[in-house]
């Protein structure tokens, strides 16, 4: 893949917390337009830190990018405010299915549109699009989010992100704490959005099985280093990857690190 065509280009990213703890030690990510890219790794590998860096959110957490660069569609991310990045189309669904629990599902969606500065008519149209992708949310439109299921809250959080009209949707562990069938539903909808609307997606996951099933390519992080990158189908076929890099077994794979 030519780097000039990348929608997102992360090069040599190094990041610390409190100027002391090294969380990322050289991460490269190139995401092409229209691609679903999975960022895999065990607990603490650096997935969340990477995603926060993409939205320039690390300074708010006493995190520092020490070196490297991040470009989103030509924008220098590290010199761009989080709000400007959202308006430019880089939109995140943070870990833990954030929605406003005391607002209804529909009010949560409206808040996403208002955050972007959409007009009433745009918001109404965008809500209809979200409901077309998530019929479940239409059924629950008047329910307080705090009283809906974990899966419905995750869908609400994703729906709210869609209200910002993303070009790159970034999700942090959307599967967390959800039943396998709900996780499959969420990934199916994400792939549908990707295939039908050309939405580019970067998804961080510990659940490598589901992520590799739906992604085009994957990058594996280990101790803050991108150790492996490849086509999702190729990686899926390799048991050694699941067991070693994703934290289940202590025998290193003997195959070269770059698959494709
Ligand atoms: N706010 C913070 N302050 C200090 N250290 C942090 C902070 N957040 C993360 N770290 C450290 O940075 C490293 C990377 O953590 P990160 O949360 O990015 O990993 P992760 O792959 O997203 O894991 P998880 O699945 O737990 O979210 C870990 O060593 C972690 O302890």
TrEMBL record:
Transmembrane segments: none annotated. One of its GO terms (molecular function) is branched-chain amino acid transmembrane transporter activity. GO terms for biological process: L-amino acid transport. Keywords: Amino-acid transport, ATP-binding, Nucleotide-binding, Transport. Residues 8-248 form the ABC transporter domain. PANTHER family: HIGH-AFFINITY BRANCHED-CHAIN AMINO ACID TRANSPORT ATP-BINDING PROTEIN LIVF (PTHR43820:SF4). SMART domains: AAA (SM00382). This is Branched-chain amino acid transport system ATP-binding protein. InterPro entries: AAA+_ATPase, ABC_transporter-like_ATP-bd, BCAA_Transport_ATP-bd_LivF, P-loop_NTPase. The lineage of its organism: Bacteria, Pseudomonadati, Pseudomonadota, Alphaproteobacteria, Hyphomicrobiales. Belongs to the ABC transporter superfamily. CDD domains: ABC_TM1139_LivF_branched (cd03224).
